[in-house]
Amino acid sequence: MLQDLSLNNKNTKAGNLHETAVNHFRNRDFNNLSKVCAQLLKENSNDYFAIEALLFCMKQENNIPAQEKCLEGLLRLKPILRNLNDYAQFLYDQARFEESMILIQENLASVREQKDSDLEVTNRILGNLSIKLGDIESAEQYYHMSLRLNPRSDNTISNVAALYLSQGDLDRARDYYQQALKENQRNDKAWMGLAMCHLSKKDSQLFWANIKNAIDIKPFEKKYLKFAANQALVDCEYVYVTKKIEVFLRNYPLDEEMNSFLISLLFQAGKKQNAYLQLERLKSVNPHHPDIIKYKEILGVSGD
């Protein structure tokens, strides 16, 4: 997005800094990009380009307060529907559901550039928020308004499926998840939802086929790995999940929860020595982890 911006003031100091920022973005040099943004905002606190670029940097750093400040600034400087959607989605992701709903309700009538593609997203967000706030009827209405704007939106179709799944309408949910996958075979949420449908129908074979697709698409999605690990302990499907969690821990070695899951899987698979070595890793991450005593007893380990 940043590299495509048309810079109309190339001969000014700000214009030169904009070009420098674009180059840092292309090179994925987010540290220096952040510094250039700070320079630009020192000169002009309403520099839309700089705020947009800084938001990207703050996402890389997972700096939540700074992200919100940027999103607030972008919506203030350019009150368009896309910016409203981005801010509302941010609040949703932080589980600030009421704030997100209020933000949309207070600003929707006044924002500009209400393209159908953006309105589709707005209605989908409103549907998601309605579910979180317990208004299932409104959620269904918002989702179908979104689908009228874009009948082929795999994300919205998948959300409708999730709604029916939550209501226990497994056949309808399955049909919508399958429809979403016809539009986009890379929709990990649809694969995961389909897995849940089959698990509810006690079809273990199809459950594993579908959850493996979801994990293969998003190998570092913890909620998929956790669900698979719990079910692996029930179905004795240790090999696949163990390998996936080992890959996860090579990238996120300090994750205590996944370390703990791996110990359980290794022990249940009969790999007691590997489980012991993983327990030592967990102890190095957090020697006071509450699961350590339990695993020491299971593994027959004494002492510290």
Describe the structure.
The chain has helices at 13-26, 30-43, 48-61, 64-77, 81-93, 97-107, 116-132, 136-149, 154-166, 170-183, 188-200, 204-217, 222-235, 238-251, 256-268, 272-285, 291-299. The chain is mainly α and 304 residues long. Helix 7 runs antiparallel to helix 8 (136-149), helix 9 (154-166) runs antiparallel to helix 10 and helix 13 packs parallel to helix 15.
Helices, strands, pairings?
Blueprint: H1 13-26, H2 30-43, H3 48-61, H4 64-77, H5 81-93, H6 97-107, H7 116-132, H8 136-149, H9 154-166, H10 170-183, H11 188-200, H12 204-217, H13 222-235, H14 238-251, H15 256-268, H16 272-285, H17 291-299
Helix pairs in contact: 1-2, 2-3, 3-4, 4-5, 5-6, 5-7, 6-7, 7-8, 8-9, 9-10, 9-11, 10-11, 11-12, 12-13, 13-14, 13-15, 14-15, 15-16, 16-17
